[in-house]
Amino acid sequence: MGPSPLGECMRIRATVAAATGALALSAFAVPAAQAADSVSRADIAHAWGLSTAASGKSGFRPATAGTAADLDVTFSDMKVNKSKNIVVGTTKEVAIPVTYTLTHAADLDMSEDNFANGPLIYRGSSVDEPTNVFISDEPATCTATSTTVASCVGTIYLRPGDGDLVNADAATWKAGGLAITADGDETVQGDLGTTKVQRYSKLTVNASPEPVKKGRTITVTGALTRANWDTGKYAGYTSQSVKLQFKKKGSSTFTTLKTIKSDSKGNLKTTVTASADGTFRYSFAGTSTTPAVDSAGDAIDVQ
């Protein structure tokens, strides 16, 4: 998908205005803690391709129960990332597909130059006062299924290389939707489901010496690391239970030999007795903030 009209380095990014708790939209690629600029409804509408947004409108705030009726639109059946966890590393952009149903008034002008809508994900108890929010760069693509219902597909992008996330963002997020018209009417709806954002994990293994005589000691080392969004680098995941597994030559199944814990730097080290040719690997079951991962296998020749 191409860049939004706000430019290649920009996207609609929502952060919390500390003084009021209201949602302020930032169009710049900066960390949430540093984003202070807000954009008007006109800027949002322009970014989503609407042609005549009124520039005099105030800065965007989520709709509340008293203002939601201004635009008769509701979101439902929202599915984020095909119901899979969202796993994010330190540099690679992650595209998150979102599908949902949009229900609207029969007399709403749904033309591209007047109406746009898109998905969002937010962290916090309420869409009105979130800790962090991400909105799709571009409006969703919708296909009418009746005069009042449409099936929609949108994409939300996370860009860790631009400082989009901090480690505290490895958590359960909620889904929501935003709809807006060219003259500034809008509605925001939250609590449309949940999704989990996790820190990408890596796991290595090395068995030595190789070759080794039967009955001798094999030392198996490795490291468990995960994305650190605060620093933009990978760091050791400490004090985590990791299984050492072995697959005998000719077999297709790994068997767990023992479980050890990563040290204060995420390193792994244990010993076993050489018994037969085969392949060692480490296996990590994952946690709520970090996905499961298996290392590549390291073959050993026992003589």
What is the topological layout?
Layout: E1 10-16, E2 23-28, H1 41-47, E3 73-80, E4 86-88, E5 94-104, E6 115-123, E7 132-135, E8 141-144, E9 149-158, E10 172-181, E11 186-189, E12 194-199, E13 201-208, E14 217-228, E15 233-236, E16 241-248, E17 255-261, E18 267-273, E19 278-284, E20 293-294, E21 298-300
Walk me through what this model shows.
The chain is built from one helix and 21 strands. The chain has 303 residues and is mainly β. The chain folds into two domains: 189 residues, Distorted Sandwich (Coagulation Factor XIII, Chain A, domain 1); 101 residues, SOR catalytic domain (Immunoglobulin-like). Strands 1, 2, 4, 6, 7, 10, 11 and 12 form an eight-stranded mixed sheet that branches. Strands 16, 17, 19, 20 and 21 form a five-stranded antiparallel sheet that branches. A hairpin with a 4-residue loop joins strand 14 and strand 15. The longest helix is centred in the first third of the chain and has 7 residues. It starts with 9 loop residues before the first strand and ends with a strand.
Work out the number of β strands. Answer: 21
The rounded Rg comes to: 25 Å
Average residue pLDDT: 83
Oligomer: single chain
Give the total of domains.
Answer: 2
Q: What form results from the Cα inertia axes?
A: elongated
CATH topology of the largest domain: Coagulation Factor XIII, Chain A, domain 1
The separation of the N and C termini measures: 55 Å
List the total number of helices: 1
Any guess at the CATH architecture of the largest domain? Distorted Sandwich
CATH class label of the largest domain: Mainly Beta
Helix percentage range: under 10%
Protein name: Secreted protein
Keywords: Signal
